[in-house]
């Protein structure tokens, strides 16, 4: 009757009775339930953190896309502005060249008019000198007096 199996069964019964007396199964179940609840909370927290991270990632993606579009718009605006400035500079250069060409042509025309005037004055001076020389050499004093009187009467009639 008191063989090994009996002692093993007795030891098993004592251990089970001690567990029951100390309420170890309920404590063990409570500890397992607490651990399960802690794991469930950690999983919920991890799920929430993942959702927050996905929202944050979506926001950053949207911001990045907006920044890329803004950068493209800035580049396009800068390109258009540069083209407009180049066209304006080209137009100003053409206007300036046209204005300078016109000024040069006007200056040439004035110089030509001055030269014609100077040539006429020189020709007139030469003609007067030649006429004076001819009158002095070919006319007598009486003829000179008659010529002066005729010219004075002609001038007088022109002014009246």
**Are there runs of 5+ residues with pLDDT below 50, and where?**
none
Mean model confidence by pLDDT: 89
Category from helices, strands and their pairing:
mainly alpha
Oligomeric state of this protein: single chain
- DSSP strand count: 0
Q: Fraction of residues in helices?
A: over 70%
Name its key features.
160 residues
Write the layout of secondary structure elements.
Blueprint (H helix, E strand, L loop, with lengths): L3 H18 L2 H115 L2 H19 L1
Structure overview:
- The protein has 160 residues and is an all-alpha fold.
- The chain has one domain (4-159).
- Helices cover 95% and strands 0% of the residues.
- The protein has 3 helices and no strands.
- It has helices at 4-21, 24-138, 141-159.
Produce a short descriptive summary:
With 160 residues, this protein is mainly alpha-helical. Helix content is 95%, strand content 0%. The chain has 3 helices and no strands.
């Amino acid at each position: 009757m008191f063989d090994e199996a009996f002692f093993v069964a007795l030891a098993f019964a004592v251990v089970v009775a001690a567990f029951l007396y100390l309420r170890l199964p309920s404590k063990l179940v409570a500890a397992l339930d607490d651990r399960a609840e802690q794991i469930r909370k950690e999983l919920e927290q991890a799920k929430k953190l993942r959702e927050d991270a996905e929202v944050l990632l979506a926001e950053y993606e949207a911001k990045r896309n907006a920044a890329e579009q803004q950068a493209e718009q800035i580049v396009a605006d800068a390109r258009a502005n540069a083209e407009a400035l180049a066209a304006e500079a080209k137009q100003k250069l053409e206007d300036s060249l046209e204005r300078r060409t016109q000024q040069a042509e006007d200056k040439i025309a004035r110089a030509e008019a001055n030269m014609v005037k100077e040539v006429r004055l020189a020709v007139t001076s030469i003609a007067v000198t030649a006429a004076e020389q001819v009158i002095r050499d070919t006319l007598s004093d009486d003829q000179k007096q008659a010529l002066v009187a005729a010219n004075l009467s002609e001038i007088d009639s022109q002014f009246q």
